[in-house]
Amino acid sequence: MYFYRLQKVLGLDSLDEVLDTKLVNSKHIVQNAYNVNKQGIVTLEDKSKELPHWILSAMKCLANWPSCSDLKQPTYSGFERDVFKTIVDYFGQMKEPLLTFHFFDVFVSVLGLLQNHSKAIEALQISCLLLPPENRKKLQLLVRMMSKISFNKDLPPLSESVKTRTLMVQAFSRCILCSKDEMDLDELLAAKLVSFLMDNCQEILSVPSALKSSIEEHVVHLQRVQIKYAGADTDANFPPPSFCCQISTDEFEYQRATGSQEPLAALLEEIATNKEISVKDKKKKLKQFQKSYPEVYKVRFPTPETEAVLFPEKTKQKPPILMWALKKPFQPFHRTRSFRM
User: Fold this and answer.
1) Whole-prediction pTM
2) Which of 20, 118, 129, 281 has an alpha carbon 20 to 30 Å from 206's alpha carbon atom?
3) What is the pLDDT of residues 283-298, one digit of tens each?
4) What is the mean pLDDT of the chain?
5) Residue range 162-183: average pLDDT?
6) How far, CA to CA in Å, does 234 sit from each of 106, 136, 172, 265, 310?
7) Of 102, 267, 261, which is closest to residue 193 (Cα–Cα)?
8) pLDDT for 57-106, tens place per residue?
9) All domains of the chain, ordered by start, with CATH?
10) pLDDT at res. 339
11) Is the pLDDT of residue 148 over 90?
């Protein structure tokens, strides 16, 4: 089954730890997998949810630079930077990230798998199919543009101080992944995931045949059982079932609290050992992490002493004592008589 496959690849005992399956629209999964064009991009039924033509033109211009088929050739220096700013401003004003607030915990869970390339790819392939089709299409177009820009040596630098690849991650991470609380910590999580997305966008945002088979099995199952859930999308042809055993309230709260600890623990360790950030920034990020995930923080830093190891105090060197000052007692100043010649 589709959800069982996601649960298995994430290595979780239950999807309840990271996902409310009642919020998943099975119609979205089917549309994302089958309603696609030759390039694998989702085709939308509701055309009002498409990206504006002028944004698409701007994105194509930078992705295919210097061949700007939709725009006139630049007539002034810095034209490409203005086009880039237009794109950044458009995606920056969205009220919700492309990966949505609902699926934030799912994508954070994938961070624990990044060291296992094939598992991370599969987890993201499945997770990205959960998105509303308009979100998936925007994500496909945006990440492909980011990847092309990063490798386009003909495109002039878009910043004087920041490398193009880093700039892509900084500019678009928040509009791709962030939580409702918009904590400072989200920037680190988003940057890590978006970098991986950008490097593997073609594979992640495609639908392999094995995954399609899983979706077909999922649809057949839904057609048989016809389970209805309160609060589910009434327009969806195939309401999603839950594939979890019933558990107690205490067990559910425990699983929800500990389900995503592995990737969070890895992130905390990265903050603690990062030598490229200043002491001030490191303390700020650690404090934010402690406030957001106290249980994970306490495992890594059970006592103040274990935390203090990260910030060894610099020993101040005392000025050398003048030995002659110790040998001679203080001599008061005596006025001497002046002699005139």
Assistant:
1) 0.70
2) 20
3) 888 887 787 778 888 8
4) 79
5) 91
6) 24, 21, 33, 39, 53
7) 267
8) 999 999 998 887 555 555 678 889 999 999 999 999 999 999 999 999 99
9) 1-212 (1.10.555.10), 249-310 (no CATH)
10) 43
11) yes
Residue 114 one-letter amino acid:
L
Look up residue 306 and give its amino acid.
Answer: T
User: Any idea how long the chain is?
Assistant: 341
Tokens of 276: 């490229």
